[in-house]
Amino acid sequence: MKKLLSIITISTLFAVPLFSQEVDKIEKLEKLENNSDTVVNNDKPVLEIGDKVFSIRETGDETIINLGKKEYRVVENNDGLTVWKSKKDGEDKELHHRHENRFRGHLGGLELGFNGLLTEYWSTSLAPEDNYFDINTAKSYNWNFILPSISIGMSRHLGFVTALGLSFNKYRFDGNNSIVKDDNGVIGPYYPDPSITYSKSKLVTTYATLPILLEGQIPVNGSNNTINIGAGVIGAVKLGSHTKVVYYTDDKQKKKHKDDFSLNVLRWGATARIGYKFFQIYGTTYFTSLFEEGKGPELYPFEVGIAFTFND
Questions:
Q1: Average pLDDT value for the chain
Q2: Total-model pTM
Q3: 61-98 as b/e, with b when 16 or more CB fall inside 10 Å?
Q4: Contact 178/171 with Cβ under 8 angstroms?
Q5: What pLDDT does residue 138 have?
Q6: In the structure, what pLDDT confidence band is assigned to residue 65 with cuts at 50, 70 and 90?
Q7: Long-range contacts from 252-261, C-beta under 8 angstroms, 24+ separation
Q8: In angstroms, how far is CA 177 from the centroid of its own chain?
């Protein structure tokens, strides 16, 4: 595929000068309708149009392209892809070189994980007055979508990587309650009528994220495959939030309430990941409390899960 793209590129760049040459070359081009042949020899295609006006030969790692009296060689090897222009004196001129040893970070793709809340590092024990915020971690989950990343290499296997993303977090309450904000913006518990039992009750948040990681890569068995280890910081800005409850009376009832719930609009934290090729295990913890100061329990979100990246 890389060779085909190179062939198309070179043909586009040099086709115009070819067709603007002298009358004898125009006559050769008129032979295209009657003298176009394609030959396959030992899985190495050769294309020749006219009296060597345009031809392509492939030998090993080289693709040789003839445009009139000009010859170009496209060489693909472990060092990358190079385009050469052949000269009469035998010394070829390098026209283009694309290195294959550039750094490419492993960030960007789909992440699936579980949510949790810390009261202090590293504790999940709630104060008695905050027990209404006890969540069911097994049913509290998140999924993140991260756009293709931007990589800045310091070497072939070390560099910085960053990307924009969206983070969707669901916190499932373990008790028969939801949350509500009073007139002063303070968060507290909301309990339904004693005849009602919630089958589901959760807080849902949506954030835009920007992780910045330093990633190191360890080659495996001399191949291009690597074990990838990255760590860095992550910032986020809140886009939306709501609560949702589900319960049964005569029929199934669903209620959704949108509010800012005095959640911090901006937050930051640390994130890390380790993986092989496109598969990663990641963890993120935020150093900014879930709620604004004095407006709710002092809780710090964290996420743990798996990621499938675009890189490989």
A1: 82
A2: 0.69
A3: eebbbbbbeebbbbbbeeeebbbbebeeeeebeeeeee
A4: no
A5: 94
A6: confident
A7: 257/178, 259/181, 261/179, 261/181, 261/187, 261/203, 261/291, 261/296
A8: 37
